[in-house]
What does this fold into?
Amino acid sequence: MAFNDRGVAYGLKGEADHAIADFDQAVALNAQYAPTFNNRAIAYAAKSQLDRAIQDYDQAVKLNTGYAIAFYNRGTAKYDKGANTRRRPPTMTTRSSSIRPTRSP
It folds into this structure.
């Protein structure tokens, strides 16, 4: 957890390369901690490495299917990737599309 926390601190200072190095260390120690993948993805996105960011967001939501901010961040990265290539942004799907409303008794 210390590497993750220090990576966040580096990220807040705008030092994405140092942040990514710490997040790599955090993943090596605990590859089941979804926030580390989300945080590393944010650092990759800051460097405009959107494919790598999306991979890490995918892993974060795979590890924690209720991780709303990672879903949101992934959607933003996918949108940004589409805007950067001047293509229509990909469809953003979330778990909410599978929720069916029910009526209360």
In short: The longest helix spans residues 68-84. Residues 73 and 87 are 19 Å apart (CA to CA). The radius of gyration is 15 Å. The chain is about 65% helix and 0% strand.
